[in-house]
Design a protein that fits this description.
This protein has 10 helices and 15 strands. It is α/β, with parallel strands linked by helices and about 425 residues long. The strands form 2 sheets. An 8-stranded mixed β-sheet has the order 1-12-10-11-9-8-7-6, with helices on one face.
């Protein structure tokens, strides 16, 4: 038990903010915003009128449609993506996807879905292509999935002269070779099918021409959620605590069984033996090392990595090996959940266990040194507990008080 607790950090029950970032800038007037990017991930259990998605719609509607992009950061359908039409579970999976598409296109914003590991589960690339076709057909072309199917990307979309969006299928990188099959998978990708994926990402950074680059993919470079090896003490004692269907109820606590969950579940996951989608796995670490090599080649490019995967909200500095830091924004709590444990470390800027999403406003005004200026805002949606079964649930509490300027430049300090 001592060994188990030694591997466990304190779980947050409220937002954590690093001391030097306590000051929160004022909101920026809408007229000064060149483009708004809303980052929201892991919304794959969405139901109609989900409070998080409704708040996302309101925030997306604050600017005119040409200045807003919503990016869903993967795991768009739990648990197994979109199966074929004649398979059990198809209607439920389709409804969960529609519950995300509806508020997004109602806002009028440009909407893009990035695939995650769960979106691959019902057929790999075929499942991702199936989901992409459904998104585009259901939305009438108002939303799309990037990259599509057998093409891992990067798909590059420039938004004016201030922002470059780079879409990558990180699940493909975890499980496949590095060579592109893009020629057959996505004719719009404009990528040499023999080119190394990371070489193409490097080219996307190298051609940014002073823009802020947001790399949107599902898997983060750094995380202190459960995929990163952080497990609260409850997991070590209660084997049912981590069952999604039981979270938020007393059921997980009625069957204590210490030690075995640590030996059979926690430690294998921390070691990366349970799934390649955990940070400790060899495939995951190889992918991070390859991306670090890309960032080292472009130390002056203003880059930010946006991901989901862990069901919480984090802003972290990822230390590139022998290179400058990269800001990691993790927004993986896109539907109303019970608070999801998250730890903190020296490189944590902000962490929250609550549901919500993160917004990046790229300003028309540059920093004094000419670098693109951007304001990062946190939107937490906290659902109070129901007072009695059968009654109308209380309205969620919306927290919109955390903002920070994106760190200027990339430095190892």
């Amino acid at each position: 038990m001592i060994l188990a607790l030694a591997t466990t950090a304190c779980a947050l029950d409220t937002r954590y903010v690093k001391n030097e970032n306590q000051g929160s800038p004022d909101p920026v007037p809408e007229g000064k915003i060149a483009h708004r990017v809303i980052l929201i991930g892991d919304a794959g259990e969405a139901e109609p009128q989900d409070p998080v998605l409704e708040e996302m719609r309101r925030v997306a509607s604050e600017l005119d449609t040409k200045r807003t992009t919503i990016i869903f950061l993967g795991d768009n359908i739990y648990p197994d993506g979109l199966p074929p039409r004649d398979y059990p579970g198809y209607d439920k999976a389709r409804a969960r996807l529609e519950a995300q598409i509806d508020p997004a296109i109602a806002s009028g914003a440009t909407t893009v879905f990035v695939p995650g590991n769960h979106d691959h589960r019902s057929g790999g690339e075929r499942a991702v292509i199936r989901q992409a076709k459904y998104i585009e057909a259901y939305s009438g072309g108002a939303a799309e999935s990037l990259p599509r199917g057998t093409c891992p990307g990067p798909i590059v979309r420039d938004v004016g002269k201030r922002l470059r969006l780079v879409y990558v299928d990180s699940e493909w990188l975890m499980r496949r070779t590095r060579l592109h099959p893009c020629a057959g998978g996505d004719p719009e990708a404009d990528i040499d099918p023999s080119q190394d994926v990371y070489a193409a990402i490097s080219a996307a950074l190298g051609g940014a021409d002073g823009r802020l680059v947001i790399i949107a993919s599902h898997h983060p470079l750094t995380t202190y959620g459960m995929h990163g090896g952080f497990y609260p003490w409850q997991v070590h004692l209660f084997p049912l605590w981590n069952v999604p269907e039981l979270q938020g109820t007393p059921a997980p606590y009625v069957f204590p069984l210490p030690v075995l969950p640590t030996l059979l579940y926690v430690w294998p996951r921390q070691a990366g033996l349970y799934t390649p989608d955990d940070l400790g796995s060899t495939k995951y670490q190889e992918s991070i090392a390859d991306l670090d090599a890309v960032f080292r080649r472009h130390p002056d490019v203003q880059a930010l990595v946006a991901s989901g995967h862990d069901h919480n909200l984090q802003i972290l500095t990822h230390q590139v090996t022998d290179g400058p830091n990269v800001l990691q924004v993790l927004s993986g709590s896109g539907t109303i959940y019970p608070p999801t444990p998250v730890g903190v470390a020296e490189n944590t800027v902000m962490a929250s266990p609550h549901s919500g999403f993160i917004v990046i406003d790229v300003l028309k005004q540059d920093e004094p040194d000419g670098l693109p200026r951007a304001l990062i805002s946190l939107f937490e949606v906290e659902q109070p507990p129901w007072t009695a079964e059968g009654k109308v649930p209380p309205l969620p509490t919306i927290h919109r008080d955390f903002r920070m300027w994106r760190p200027v430049g990339r430095t190892s300090k």
